[in-house]
Amino acid sequence: MPSIHADDGTRIFYETFGKPDGEPLVLIMGLAVDRWGWIRQRNMLAKNFRCISIDNRGAGLSDKPHGDYDLFTMASDVESVMDAEGVESAHIVGYSLGGVLSQVLAVQSPQRVRSLVLASTACRIKNWRREILGDWTQLVEARGARAFGKENLRWVAAARHMRWIAPLAPAFAPLMVRAPAHGIIGQIQAMAGIDEQVHEELRGVDVDTLVIVGSQDILTPVADSEEIAHWIDRARLQVISGAAHGAVVTDATVFNRAVESFLNEQITAHA
């Protein structure tokens, strides 16, 4: 699998798949999850796009340096991968932490972004979410990555999904969380350090944007997506009824239909 060295020497692994001559599309996953978090979107996206799916620093095969991470460095990692693939600009699809990184990328390097899909994400940390991130850090430090994965299933799945997810938790959690403790903590610190000015800078983002969220998402509630859609002039908001934070997995059929429709519009617009 290909990899690049970021500006600070961190090795970032990524995968390419899909239509070789299709428009480039970059996938950026969420906290502690590697590129396989997109498993239920791969076939749909591969039909029309040249896909680049990245293991963020701290997760998957990418290096997991000790110490603080920050969003701007992680967004620059994405740019380094695009440079290595000869991609000047791409459609960017980000989930959760990946959605935050997508916003940062659109703010700091708008010329690299053709369109945005921002899923289950937020543009500000807010005090109540900062407290949750602090609790997660303490959990990972005390009990490790596996415990973090089990505990956080309740954040990603709505009540109607827990009946079938809960019995699978012991096996599912290690597959969902693909990062060591210090990598998870580094990514958490990056999220907690989001620049409070980023949300205001979203006013300068001038690309078509799909903001998508589950109606039962308690980690990045609908109000967060409404705020993003407010700041980005060309944004549209779609709420998936009954879905929680993990809509990319638990409600993939509805999620994929919305994303595919939006991206197909972008292909037509760029034709």
Task: Itemize the secondary structure elements and their pairings.
Layout: E1 3-5, E2 11-18, E3 23-28, H1 42-46, E4 49-54, H2 71-84, E5 90-95, H3 97-108, E6 113-119, H4 127-143, H5 145-151, H6 153-156, H7 159-165, H8 169-176, H9 181-192, H10 198-201, E7 209-214, H11 222-231, E8 235-240, H12 247-250, H13 252-270
Parallel strand pairs: 3-4, 3-5, 5-6, 6-7, 7-8
Antiparallel strand pairs: 1-2, 2-4
SS field, number of helical segments: 13
CATH class: Alpha Beta
CATH superfamily: Alpha/Beta hydrolase fold, catalytic domain
Strand content: 15-25%
What tags apply to this protein structure?
18% strand, 8 strands, Rossmann fold, single chain
How does this model look, in words?
This protein has 271 residues and is α/β, with parallel strands linked by helices. It has a single domain, classed as Alpha/Beta hydrolase fold, catalytic domain (Rossmann fold, 3-Layer(aba) Sandwich). Helices cover 45% and strands 18% of the residues. It has helices at 42-46, 71-84, 97-108, 127-143, 145-151, 153-156, 159-165, 169-176, 181-192, 198-201, 222-231, 247-250, 252-270; strands at residues 3-5, 11-18, 23-28, 49-54, 90-95, 113-119, 209-214, 235-240. Helix 4 (127-143) packs across helix 5 (145-151). 48% of the residues are buried.
Concise overview:
The chain has 271 residues and is of the alpha/beta class. It has a single domain, classed as 3-Layer(aba) Sandwich (Rossmann fold).
